[in-house]
Amino acid sequence: MTSLAPALFAVLLWWASTGAVLLALRWASRAPRLAGAASAAVFAGGLALVAGTAGETSAAGAYLAFTAAIAVWGVQELAFLAGWITGPWRSPAPAGTGPLRLAGYAVAAILYHELALVASGALVLAASWGGPNQLAFWTFAALLVMRVSAKLNVFLGVSNLAESFLPAHLAYLKSFFGARPINLLFPVSVGLSALALAEILIWAGEAEGEAAVAPLLLGTLVALGFLEHWLLVLPVPVERLWGWGARPAVAGPLPRLAGAAAAVAPDFEPIRATARERQPKAREAA
């Protein structure tokens, strides 16, 4: 029962938090300023909870630190899906773009969000610095590594892209999705995930009593990431897991917050104009 409780908690929190982000996305389309303020409060509260549990080595401290990291991560996921933090490139990939330039456009499409994730991870680390309970940082780090791996696999090509989760204002990201049964990175990703999971389970097996809660929570999260990778190549309708949060789909950008982001972002319109001019030429050459 000691091993089962942390695993069940991690699975339920993973499922519920993903659905909560999708629900919040629907809310953000109707009340962007209020949603932004609430997200900032959750983010700050999550960091405060990370700091408050850094000195706790009890089972309760592990559960709270794990939850705090998920909350901080969830805010960043909402910021991306809502279009608040994405990247300097917000258009489909130009027609006829070669593989290397396509990778450059793909990075530009999500650059600001990736930097925000790294900065958030640094804040989680700083909030728990010097404390015996580092579960919040390792939870955030595991989420970040698994997410980067998943994004690389989606770019290189997988068969189950779950495109329905993308709101309409991020539809241009589909031009960076590779469509093929599998890619060469996939076995490396799942292999390294399996090795990491094995190491964490060994840690959990060596721990006694409440000390086993932290590695069991982290191990379950890594196992879920391992499962998510396989869902990228298996014909499983993952949308059914979070249909309660995903419907109805968000049907447009968030004008106020998107406008505020555009005011401080660099002007990439000349690059887009050049790309649009090249598209007809690329079609004629084809």
Taking all Cα atoms into account, the compactness measure Rg is 20 Å
Q: Output mean pLDDT.
A: 86
Gap from first CA to last CA: 63 Å
Q: How many distinct domains?
A: 1
Q: What coarse outline follows from CA principal-axis ratios?
A: globular
Structural class label: mainly alpha
What's the short version?
The chain is mainly α. It has one domain. It has helices spanning about 5-30, 30-55, 60-80, 100-125, 135-155, 185-205, 215-230, 245, 255-265, 270-285.
What would you say this structure looks like, in words?
The protein is mostly helical and 286 residues long. The chain has one domain (4-285). Helices cover 68% and strands 0% of the residues. The chain has helices at 4-30, 32-53, 59-81, 99-127, 135-156, 185-206, 213-231, 243-246, 255-264, 269-285. Helix 2 (32-53) crosses helix 4 (99-127) and helix 3 (59-81) packs parallel to helix 7.
Show the helix and strand layout.
Elements: H1 4-30, H2 32-53, H3 59-81, H4 99-127, H5 135-156, H6 185-206, H7 213-231, H8 243-246, H9 255-264, H10 269-285
Helix pairs in contact: 1-2, 1-3, 1-7, 2-3, 2-4, 3-4, 3-5, 3-7, 4-5, 5-6, 5-7, 6-7
Keywords:
single chain; 286 residues; mainly alpha; 10 helices; 68% helix; 0% strand; disordered C terminus
